[in-house]
Design brief:
The structure is a single chain. This protein has two domains: 11-215, Distorted Sandwich (Beta-galactosidase, Chain A, domain 5), CATH 2.70.98; 219-610, Glycosyltransferase (Alpha/alpha barrel), CATH 1.50.10.10. Residues 606-617 have low confidence and may be disordered. The chain has a 15-stranded antiparallel beta sheet that branches. Strands 24-25-26 form a three-stranded antiparallel beta sheet. Strands 16-17 form a two-stranded antiparallel sheet. It is 32% helix and 21% strand. The longest helix is centred in the C-terminal third of the chain and has 21 residues, at 408-428. Helix 7 runs antiparallel to helix 8 (408-428), helix 8 runs antiparallel to helix 9 (434-451) and helix 13 (526-538) packs antiparallel against helix 14 (542-553). Bound molecules: ligand LLGJG24Q. The ligand OC[C@H]1O[C@H](O[C@H]2O[C@H](CO)[C@@H](O)[C@H](O)[C@H]2O)[C@H](O)[C@@H](O)[C@@H]1O binds next to helix 4.
């Protein structure tokens, strides 16, 4: 039953389950092909997603291998139900990770309940555990009714209501399900040195987990249009937050390729200041304040130290060392290699993160989440660093590896940092130097308008003096740098529509024009496509905005999930999955379309529209 062809499933065939410390991807074939434990940035013990079946997976499905599948999440939860319809009848598989308030970050429990719905179906379970990213075969032994798999520091306990047997470094079970019959499998991770293990009572855990998610959802106040898809995005964002540390990861996976068969394969299981602040915007403005407080505490711990040592990305507990390396024994998703863990972007200098940081703390204050006094002290220290560094070239929002430049978007975000510093100091009576910040803010504005705008193209461009376009410029109006109706912004949006789109969706930039230091190319970037929706809304191009939004929502898979990018030629999702950045952008656009989103909120902060005469050069 387990796929003998060893082919990877399409990315859109996966659904997410998780416990807000780690998560797993369940395929439409009932196979869990990606699972890192105990944290989402720990080593994977199922890594078939990035290699072969033998790199670790756990499949429960009808034995004859031919079925049709329907899937859904139980309403407002992260509990997945997969129904297999076969010639023998129908079976329902319910998958979830136990939400247990008392669980430490070192434990994690996966439960799979399979029920006969009709007929009498032969079922099979195949469990291949390979610790350390698919490389380590564990020693498996019986402990009472359970099987215990151990490899060094990691162990997994399997309990099942049907007999299991070991063969060829695989644990298997075969059983027949009749209508109304229920069988339960449970797999728990814990560090090997924790000798005592207590499996949960699965049905009580199911009820508790369902109630946990419903209670969480009920805390929010999003009632606008597209509620189903927006709530699924918010639940996905919550699943990517780390309950124990407050961090917010960019995605669940590493190395799902930006181009099928390509080398642009990166590890996203970390906390980017940029992605996390964006996520915060979505959660905070839909009523989820607890996550904002937890993230702010995470942030203050992570950035503690000299402002010059601030990184753009950290491990989920704030670890600074997340050095990038390749995993040569994994062949890569559909052969896209290398598979990388860690991320060298941690050593980059990216000016936009200062703007995102100041903007998110500004938002937190504006919704009444008044931070402790030391938060402003850290912000002032960060601003002191930015005063002497904003004018330097940097690596930019897209983390290009082709050398530092004066990226226009980076300078705009430096403007945001000074703008929000001035506003916070003025509104809340906080210590300045306000006048100096005002001066620098105005200097940066003039600098961007003088050097980032290309008269011939009637557009802002990727970096000072360049001819190239870049979708990050769509943020200029969204952060309030200029009004969306300013002639220069209108020109930039038009230029992006004319030159930076593929099949009606937005590319980040054209790699061949932008020297990003990498071979190959990539798909269209879904967050940027949502940013275009936001700009269209702000320019009053409502029906075009709605049309584009509907197209983007249509790219969600059957359970409402999106990755980072989309390949219009192959008509497939590409890049890491599910991706916070994309789901944030979806939530923001839905709210912007309803007239109550961040774009409108930030637009209220911006200077009056001008014809842009001062920008001519
Ligand atoms: O495409 C090259 C870069 O891709 C990754 O960065 C992207 O993902 C980050 C996390 O979502 C996001 O913050 C960034 O803006 C994106 O460009 C990767 O992490 C980089 O190492 C890589 O150079």
């Amino acid at each position: 039953m387990s796929d003998p062809k060893n082919e990877n499933l399409p990315i859109e065939d996966y659904a997410l389950i998780g416990n807000t410390i780690t998560g797993a991807l369940v395929g439409k074939n009932g196979s869990i092909d990606w699972f890192c434990a105990p944290r989402l940035d720990s080593a994977a013990c199922f890594a078939a997603l990035l290699g072969d079946r033998d790199n670790g997976h756990w499949q429960i499905a009808p034995a004859d291998g031919t079925w049709t599948v329907r899937r859904r999440y139980r309403d407002n939860t992260l509990i997945l139900e997969t129904e297999f319809e076969t010639s023998q009848g129908c079976a329902r598989l319910t998958d979830f990770m136990v939400m247990n308030g008392h669980d430490s970050e070192e434990h994690c429990r996966l439960v799979r309940i399979v029920e006969g719905v009709s007929g009498s179906i032969d079922m099979e379970m195949v469990l291949v555990i390979r610790f350390y990213y698919g490389s380590m075969v564990p020693w498996v032994r019986r402990v009472g009714d359970a099987r215990l798999a151990v490899a060094g520091p990691d162990s997994l306990h399997l309990t099942a209501t049907v007999p299991v047997y070991g063969h060829d470094q695989t644990t298997r079970a075969r059983f027949t399900l009749t209508a109304g019959q229920r069988e339960i499998f449970h797999l728990g991770y814990q560090p090997t040195h924790h000798t005592a293990y207590e499996p949960p009572e699965p049905l009580a855990a199911l009820a508790h987990t369902e109630a946990w998610w419903r209670t969480w959802v009920a805390q929010g106040h999003y009632e606008g249009p597209w509620r189903t898809i927006v709530m699924r995005s918010l639940i996905t964002l919550k699943a990517l937050t780390c309950r124990s540390t407050g961090a917010i990861a960019a995605a669940l996976t590493t190395s799902l390729p930006e181009q099928l068969g390509g080398t642009r394969n990166w590890d996203y299981r970390y906390c980017w200041l940029r992605d996390a602040t964006f996520t915060l915007w979505s959660l905070l403005t839909t009523g989820y304040t607890e996550e904002a407080v937890a993230w702010r505490e995470w942030l203050m711990r992570a950035v503690a130290g000299h402002p010059a040592d601030l990184q753009i990305v950290y491990g989920v507990a704030g670890e600074r060392w997340i050095g990038e390396r390749e995993i040569p024994w994994l062949r890569g998703y559909e052969g896209a290699s290398p598979v990388r863990i860690g991320n060298a972007a941690a050593d980059q200098f990216q000016i936009d993160v200062y703007g995102e940081l100041m903007d998110s703390l500004h938002l937190a204050r504006s919704v009444g989440l008044n931070p402790e006094a030391h938060v402003w002290d850290i912000q002032r220290a960060v601003m002191g660093f930015l005063e002497t560094h904003w004018h330097l070239p940097d690596d930019g929002i897209w983390e290009m590896r082709g050398g530092r430049r004066h990226f226009t978007h980076s300078k705009v975000m430096a403007w945001v940092a000074f703008d929000r510093a001035v506003k916070d100091a003025t509104r809340y009576g906080l210590e300045g130097p306000v006048e100096r910040w005002q001066e620098i803010r105005d200097t940066i504005h003039a600098d961007v308008c003088a050097h980032g705008f290309n008269v011939a193209k009637n557009s802002f461009t990727q970096y000072y003096g360049s001819e190239s376009l870049d979708a990050s410029l769509l943020m200029m109006a969204l952060v309030g740098f200029l009004p969306a109706t300013d002639a220069r912004i209108v020109g930039t949006v038009r230029a992006i529509e004319d030159e930076l789109m593929d099949d009606g969706l937005v590319l980040r930039y054209r790699p061949q024009e932008s020297n990003d230091g990498l071979p190959g190319t990539e798909g269209v970037f879904l967050p940027c496509s949502f940013w275009l929706v936001d700009n269209l809304v702000l320019q009053g191009r409502d029906s075009e905005a709605r049309q584009l939004f509907a197209r983007l929502v249509g790219l969600c898979n059957d359970v409402g999930l999106l990755s980072e990018e989309y390949d219009p030629a192959a008509r497939r999702l590409v890049g890491n999955f599910p991706q916070a950045f994309t789901h944030v952008a979806l939530v923001n656009s839905a709210r912007n379309l309803a007239g109550d989103g961040p774009a409108a909120h930030r637009a209220r902060n911006q200077p009056a529209a001008t014809g842009g005469a001062e920008a001519r050069r």
